[in-house]
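[job 0412] stage=complex_fold ligand=nicotinamide-adenine-dinucleotide status=START
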Amino acid sequence: MERKTISRAVIKRLPRYYRYLGDLLESGVERISSNELSDKMQVTASQIRQDLNNFGGFGQQGYGYNVQHLHTEIGKILGLDRTYNMIILGAGNLGQALANYSKFARWGFKVIGIFDVDPELDGTMVRDIPIRMVSELPRYLKENDVQIAALTLPRNQAKAMAELVTANGVKAIWNFAHTDLKLPEDVIVESVHLSDSLMQLSYNMSNYKDKTQKKSRTKEK
Ligand SMILES: NC(=O)c1ccc[n+]([C@@H]2O[C@H](COP(=O)([O-])OP(=O)(O)OC[C@H]3O[C@@H](n4cnc5c(N)ncnc54)[C@H](O)[C@@H]3O)[C@@H](O)[C@H]2O)c1
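[job 0412] stage=complex_fold status=DONE, emitting structure tokens
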């Protein structure tokens, strides 16, 4: 099937569809209508139909969606039909928390190495992975097929470390350091800022307060 260009907004919603469908599969649900999916996900049924039509629909009139099929197809679109080897650079609070989260492997993201510069951490095990020193990194990258490097190190180290791993063949950076990275065009960078989500939460809270205040003022009149 020839694929048309999909908007970034649709792509951003796909992981959520994927998660919900995965949960449905786990609870033994084999098919679902767009209305049922809409109730569960709090997204309009027409939005769901529109989103999924981008990929040829996957739905059948009067039947709804085959959950397994839809889950597999969205997984393919998201590139989850393969596995990725990932290393973590910076074995502090965040780096170790990521390494300890076993579910990434279920989605195909396998943490195979963790690196730091602190000699006190050398050889410490995080799950079944030993923390190695950054000095071993170039050799490690020659001997292991690594697709993704997660940066959980101080921001002033991010650029140099990103350049080091990309010069050694890594083509994707999952960047948690609060800095924008300019890397060669063929390197994919995805930056994560938990604080953005927290600010969104605070915006929604203040907005909600404004709304309820407005409502009570109208009632008083
Ligand atoms: N994006 C987000 O949402 C988010 C959330 C929390 C923290 N952070 C950022 O993530 C980073 C890590 O946070 P943390 O709380 O785990 O800090 P931390 O101090 O606990 O850990 C940082 C680790 O990086 C190591 N390190 C320093 N230079 C290095 C290098 N060149 N190569 C490899 N390792 C190196 C340090 O020795 C330390 O172990 C910080 O930059 C922080 O601002 C981002």
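The pocket of nicotinamide-adenine-dinucleotide is lined by residues 89-95, 115-118, 134, 152-155, 157, 161, 176-178, 192-195 (CB under 6 Å).
[job 0412] exit 0
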